[in-house]
Amino acid sequence: MIEETPHAARPAGSTDMSMTSVRVVYPDLHGYPRGKDVPIGEFDRVAEDGLAFCAAIMGTDLRHTPVVGGEQGYPDLIAVPDLTTMTHLPWEPGVAWCIADVHPVQDGPRPADPRGTLRRAVAAFEALDLAPIVGPELEFFLCVRDPESPNGLGRYVDNLSMVYTVGPQADPQGVVREITEALASLGLGTFAANHEFMNSQYEINLRHGPALIAADRAFRLKAAVKDVAAQRGLVATFMGKPFNDQGGSGFHLHVSADREDDNAFADGDGVSPELRRFVAGVLAHAPALMAFLNPTVNAYRRLVPDSLAPTRCNWGWDNRTTFVRVPPERGRATRVEVRVGDGSANPYLATAAVLFAGLHGLREELPLPDPIDGDAYGLGDAAGAPLPASLEAALDALDADAYLRDAMSPEVADTFTALKRFEIERHRTWVSDWDVAEYLHHL
After folding, report:
1. Residues with Cβ < 8 Å from 348, sequence gap 6 or more?
2. Fewer CB atoms inside 10 A, N or C side of the chain?
């Protein structure tokens, strides 16, 4: 499954003369792009020295509260542009786009670093002469601002049975097509797009590639979708379940591993022991993986029976009701699909966590349980142990999984856990519209 085309590289000294600024961004723990716009005349210096940011950004929640970082005195981190990721932004003429790696300042504390965590996971595979290959699969909703709709947001297209449709009826402003064409022109691996199953839900397909490149593509896809939608006066969201009357948006990860330019998960017309051990590792750490694959309170509202999202720890042959599906393609296309991810997941943390879990199975040659046949939702306990049904339960599982916490690093695991437990407590004490509708009149 090797992907031949890397990033569209553009070294600092040879940046296109039409460029006026370089947008240097990096992912925070939420997967949100943080960064600075740099005038083109200053970029050579930035490329060498990096950009300073308060490291507490990695411990700041989505309501702008610095949960972690104050105890260290709010030190800096340095974001150094990865020049191999330099490309231009078709939807913002004159702007180039570059992903940065983050580092501590001199001997300062190591920042929680999602991209660096994935780099370490890849290096661990390389120590086994394996190169992890990943194909991200993301869904999202497009919304319009509407004061009359709940939360002030209506749906861009609100018709039933639009799944797998294209053209003006599915995308009246051509927004999804524009994003797909723009990212494809940059060599970022977008190759198809369509309206998905839910009303105003879309999917833009990304080609598989080396794990870090694949995560960069998913990170950039999410940023591009939201930016272009904003330019059109729309709101795009990868939030798992934004509407009560619709299902949710997933983030599926297709994973294989190459060895000497051949797929190590393939074995003739069948699957290799490596694939089985990888899946066994993923299942062994499934409860803890849920924290990174479903990292919001909202994410667990989409994990219900008959949703094509798994609710138990299991696997199956071409079975979309299981946690891990082994698609039917063989040979070079042999792979596993981890189906539980939520659209809100950080592509770097989700990919790294799955790879580290699978790596444990490969190293320890963990045995694989029997596959699930048929509808896993109707099999009860025979379909495997229930997955955590809330973010709090998933964080408890992560706290109990010493291997995965250590693999992801204390900086990432501890900061992530603190952020998310703070989020849970804010949610617990917040009076919602459901509370008011349910209780205010009668009680």
Report:
1. 27, 31, 114, 115, 117, 118, 215, 219
2. C
Residues facing residue 386 across a β-bridge: 312
The bridge status of strand 21-27 relative to strand 95-104 is parallel
Q: Do residues 200 and 239 touch, judged by C-beta distance below 8 A?
A: no
pLDDT tens digits for 203-225? Answer: 999 999 999 999 999 999 999 99
Sorted by where each starts, the structural domains of the chain and their CATH numbers stand as 12-109 (3.10.20.70), 120-433 (3.30.590.10)
Residues 6+ apart with CB under 8 A from 434: none
Residue type at 180 in one-letter notation: T
Ranges of H-type helices in 106-251: 114-126, 175-185, 211-231
DSSP track, 300-318: GGS--TTSSS--BS-EEET
Tokens of 40: 């083109």
Round to the nearest angstrom and report the end-to-end CA distance of the chain. 59
3-state helix, strand, coil in the chain (%, to 5): 40, 25, 40
